[in-house]
Amino acid sequence: MKELFLIRHGRQDSPLCNVDVGLSSEGKKQADLLGKRLKTYGIEKLYSSELIRAIETADIISDIIGVESSPLADIEEIHFGGFTGKTDEQIRSLYGNFQKERRLHKADIPFPVGGECGADVALHYCRGKDRAERTAERIAALGRRTCLVQADVTDAQSVQEMQRQVKETLG
Hints:
Strand order of the largest sheet: 1-4-2-3
Number of helices: 6
Number of strands: 4
Largest sheet: 4 strands, parallel
Strand content: 5-15%
Structural class: alpha/beta
């Protein structure tokens, strides 16, 4: 029987929340503690979404459990466009007008430079079954005990759909 451990990334290093940034010192400690706990679980494969904080979480866990970590494409909740990898100060400097407009909540505007908006996220969830099926197919080919680190594992409906798809794919 295969087991899939869904892990939410550690605390991010930004109060802005919806940005693709690294882990805070607290987030690194969280990942370290989780890695120490997972060390006895016999994890064979370790994957993450392509979000910086998910990759960093997986890399810390990887160093502790001795299993290589690899990012998987197209499993993150939203693409942050030009915000990706920028510090809060860089975001304020480069995209201050965007942030002001976004706080007004008058329109569903995408993150600048190729980013997505709320409607894009909703579309992902409408197509969630397809994404869950693709992810389940990938997981079916993986090791017996696999960890997946990402941002949106707290969405119960997505988790239930992924569990259903994995169970169906594995038979």
